[in-house]
Amino acid sequence: MIEFSGVCRTYGTKVAVSDLDLTIPRGELFALLGPNGAGKTTTIKMLVGLLRPSRGHVRVAGHDLVLDPRGAHLHLGYVPDEPCLYDKLTGREFLWFIADMFGMPRDLAGGRIAAEIEHFELGEFADDLAESYSLGMRQRLVFASSLLHDPETLVLDEPMVGLDPRSVRIVKDLLRARTSAGMTVFMSTHTLAMAEEMADRVGIMVRGRLVFLGTVAELRERGAARPDSAGTGRESLEQLYLDLTSTAGGESPR
User: Fold this and answer.
1) What are the residue ranges of helices labelled H in 121-164?
2) Among 57, 101, 149, 184, which is least packed, fewest CB within 10 Å?
3) pTM reported for the whole predicted model
């Protein structure tokens, strides 16, 4: 489970995230949407321990990211928007490095590495240096590394960047299987179709504040209730998103 309680983050006088209260239960895939500069990246960095909140608490599986970062990270997997690898390691060596970082026993780690190489169809490339990988292959390797320790929570920042259609299908199938088994997934994305297809709930953030929280169906109901709406409830998620972020002071559509 993920919990933000009264979370604020400032940079000098600039407020990046303001009064964020959000709970994501076990087994839910949550998608955070918002225009550039809305505070999504800051939110994710606080969630994975790369930034401290200026006020409030962020917890993963009951562990406070500030007070008990090691405990939180043992329950957490993270896929950043730009895959970071050690280019002079092979894919397999990188996975062993990650397993050692989590203190996994060698016999357990070996089995998990073999399983993730198979899940992400990395076998053909596992013993090549990472410097030879395409962007899509690098992203698949980072996905594999994030799941080695079987985390309860997975945090994804623009997870489909650089993935070909086959890789996208692998990731979608994996996310469905893992959430069905109880994993909590927090995903930041600009891909509205991905959020509509995959997410149990969506949150829309504008200028550091969560201006909507609910299902896509609830977002459509909200759109249909507007005085200027045709009331059909069939508006696209894109149009509803643009209307909401524009009304709330987000970026103008470009």
Assistant:
1) 135-147
2) 101
3) 0.88
> Which of 157, 242, 139 lies closest to 194, judged by CA?
157
What does the DSSP 8-state code read for residue 184? Answer: E
Give CA–CA dist 152/181, Å, rounded: 10
**The dihedral formed by the CA atoms of 111, 112, 114 and 115, expressed in degrees to the nearest 10:** 120
pLDDT recorded at residue 252: 38
Q: In this structure, what token pair is assigned to residue 38? A: 């809305």
Angle at 150 between CA 144 and CA 156, to 5 degrees: 55
**Residue 251: Cβ within 10 Å count:** 15
Where do the domains of the chain lie, and which CATH numbers do they carry? 1-75+155-169+184-254 (3.40.50.300), 82-150 (no CATH)
Write the pLDDT tens digit of every residue in 31-48. Answer: 999 998 899 999 999 999
Instruction: For tokens 């080695």, name the residue.
Output: 148
Q: pLDDT of 207-235, one tens digit each?
A: 999 999 999 888 888 766 665 555 555 56
CA-based diameter of the chain, in Å? 62
Cα gap 8→15, rounded to integer Å:
8
C-alpha torsion angle, residues 222, 225, 229, 234 (rounded to 10): 50
Tokens 């927090």 correspond to what residue? 186
Q: What angle do CA 146, 148, 154 make, to 5 degrees?
A: 40
CA distance 38 to 86: 31
For 66, the token pair is 């500030």
Rounded-to-integer distance, Cα 3 and Cα 14, Å: 24
Which structure tokens are listed for 146?
Answer: 């994030």
